[in-house]
Amino acid sequence: MRLIPIESLDTEGLADYSRLTDVALRRVSEPEGGLYIAESTKVITRALAAGHRPRSVLLQEQWVKDVAPLLDAFPDVPVYVGDAPTLESLTGYHLHRGALAAMHRPEMPDMRSLIRGARRIVLLEDIVDHTNVGAIFRSVAGLGADAVLVSPRCADPLYRRSVRVSMGTVLQVPWTRMPEWPEAQAILHEEGFHIAALALDDKAVTLDAFSHTPPERVALALGAEGDGLSSAALEAADTTVMIPMLHGVDSLNVASASAVALWSLRVGA
Ligand SMILES: C[S@@+](CC[C@H](N)C(=O)[O-])C[C@H]1O[C@@H](n2cnc3c(N)ncnc32)[C@H](O)[C@@H]1O
């Protein structure tokens, strides 16, 4: 392992971690071919298991023994080691989860090959909140759906907060960003998917009714927190499905809605 004690915060390789505020992270993590930050040994382990490559690691001395075995295959990756105050002044926050790794973002898989063979997929249209994106991935993993498609404007699943809220499942669940949506509905139909739009609509069928004899392959579309699914998405759907609401509540949080629907439509569990 290539341990590098931090002697100066100006060290070139540390720039990936400097002032890790949400805004700064967005800058380094969003561009295609850029980086994302894996936080904690657990998430780093998942990222490596997914075949992602680290560019560097940042940690306190006490975590070296935990991280060392993870990096056996990457002897040349720099591992920057510093004390808590040094790391805090570098990143802008207290690093209580032990280690951070700057990871190379994986190439986005082709949508068609990603969904081929899948039976349940989730499609996120313009979800803006990284917490919701992370929570949906956690439900997808835990309730056995096969893949996630995100619209061009959907929040980044590899953003630090999404990764953390997902418990690292964004690194495990196959996903890709659709180049265009709702134009991609043609691909979904060609691959045999029934598009079910989750929306509160007078003409919607209830989730219970839809789940009674569900289609073999379902793409479950979820809409943005404020406005819900666009009219174009609703038009692209084969069925609109609603979870009936009680006590005057108008809707569920989008991540809660995904969990309810995925459980109802689960295959073989
Ligand atoms: C907070 S809701 C958006 C509410 C928005 N005012 C609307 O009318 O769609 C965000 C997303 O969660 C899903 N959702 C939430 N509650 C739902 C329900 N009771 N039935 C079906 N979908 C629901 C839908 O996909 C919706 O686009």
Automatic annotation (TrEMBL):
The keyword Nucleotide-binding is annotated on this UniProt entry: no
Keywords: Methyltransferase, Transferase
Gene3D superfamilies: 3.40.1280.10
One GO biological process term: methylation
SUPFAM superfamilies registered for this protein in UniProt: alpha/beta knot (SSF75217), L30e-like (SSF55315)
Entry-linked InterPro entries: Alpha/beta_knot_MTases, Ribosomal_eL30-like_sf, rRNA_Methyltransferase, SpoU_MeTrfase, tRNA_m1G_MTases_N
Domain annotation tRNA/rRNA methyltransferase SpoU type: ranges: 121-263
MF term (GO), any: RNA binding
One Pfam entry name: SpoU_methylase
UniProt name for this protein: tRNA G18 (Ribose-2'-O)-methylase SpoU
